[in-house]
Amino acid sequence: MPVTAPPPSRGWFAQLLLRLHFTAGLFVGPFVLVAALSGAVYAVAPTIEQGLYRHELTAPSTASALPLADQVAAAQRYVERHHPGDTVAEVRPAPSPGTTTRVMFTEEGLLDSQTRAVFVDPGDAAVRGDLPVYGTSGSLPFRTWISTVHRSLFLGDVGRLYSETAASWLGIVSLAGIGLWAFRLRRARRKRDLILPDNRATGYRRTFSWHAATGAGVLLGALFLSATGITWSHFAGDNVTALRSALSWQAPTVDTALDGSSSAAGGEHAGHHVGGSMTMGSTATTPEQFDEVLAVARDSGVHAAEIRIRPPASADTAWTVEEIKLSWPVAMNAVAVDPSTMTAVSEVTWADYPLMAKATKLGINTHMGALFGLANQVVLLLAALGIAAMVVFGYVMWWQRRPAGARFGRAPAAGALARAPWWGTTAVVVVAVGLALLLPVVGVTLLGFLLVDALVTTFGRRTR
């Protein structure tokens, strides 16, 4: 007998969401669990680092701060003894009393965006130690290690590709899950069990109650982390960057070229998940110039305590002084200073940022746990732990649903698209193609899922 397609069914979309939620969750679950746990640690890493590296970060001297020239000279003498050949890359003056100045040097063998920081007590120029630091955020070794685990599991490009797939699918799995939650909430007699965990239930029903309630609670956090995390990815991140460039949503940068040609100075993502080259100090740089350049910058609108001063990369480029205050309210003013005239030749203020560039910067700072300080870190910690718990609950549910004597649980029934009306199938394909264009890794895996689902359904029907 010829095989005929079943008539369209009203329940096809919920079935598709269930199949998608289960299959995608099963595939990305292990990495999402590691990413969530490492992200939870990364969220509170700044606070942990304050304890781990207390000696380097604190300045015991109560004397007034010496000129930067004295502090830089002390760091250079230290480097000549312990790390000969290093060159000054930038200086970050102590942001508050009791903290150290960081004099940062380039060094062979370090990671991209990583420098050797010498910590100097601004009161007496005593060197408190040295550590490798990473990026604009100034991550110390502990946070850098956690960031690498979070980013790639130390698997290089393979790890980054897998992390991009998992981070992107986190948002899709979350949306599919909240869709299923809404369907069940509409039909449930006890709606409370989908909002708060039902501890009176047992077995699968109790686990499902916890999974559903936790998922609803961390939905916004999961979507936010997925969306902001995509900007650090390889393929999707490039597309986002190209889109922002086409729409003029990029953050402005000061022009450091003294011959009139453009020269970029930084980016939003420096210091977390992507590398970028650091500015190399000029051989003509002297310690006294740091004080002179800073004075010009202060007169030109750079007022924040958290700043970095970078020497020119060559004789035809300017010094730069940038505010790097990541907490609210952020401070992002920057000035380029001509060393021959000690005048500001280019300026950028936070007001110059387009609206979407501001939103991107604020989103990245929040993702890193920097925008709202400890409160931000606590919220991220709870969201990450909630995502990890959802993964565990999902695998437990799969185990609890296994048939008697089976090693694995049952998968939701396939064939949702075969039961869908033509417009439903068309909409799903259009969405999949759109995702393939914007998020290539997600698009390809989603199209693969739809193809496998269709083949399984067709083969199973013909076998029966």
TrEMBL record:
<protein>
    <submittedName>
        <fullName>Peptidase</fullName>
    </submittedName>
</protein>
<keyword id="KW-0812">Transmembrane</keyword>
<feature type="transmembrane region" description="Helical">
    <location>
        <begin position="166"/>
        <end position="183"/>
    </location>
</feature>
<keyword id="KW-0472">Membrane</keyword>
<feature type="transmembrane region" description="Helical">
    <location>
        <begin position="427"/>
        <end position="456"/>
    </location>
</feature>
<keyword id="KW-1133">Transmembrane helix</keyword>
<feature type="region of interest" description="Disordered">
    <location>
        <begin position="260"/>
        <end position="282"/>
    </location>
</feature>
<feature type="transmembrane region" description="Helical">
    <location>
        <begin position="378"/>
        <end position="398"/>
    </location>
</feature>
<feature type="transmembrane region" description="Helical">
    <location>
        <begin position="20"/>
        <end position="45"/>
    </location>
</feature>
<dbReference type="Pfam" id="PF03929">
    <property type="entry name" value="PepSY_TM"/>
</dbReference>
<dbReference type="InterPro" id="IPR005625">
    <property type="entry name" value="PepSY-ass_TM"/>
</dbReference>
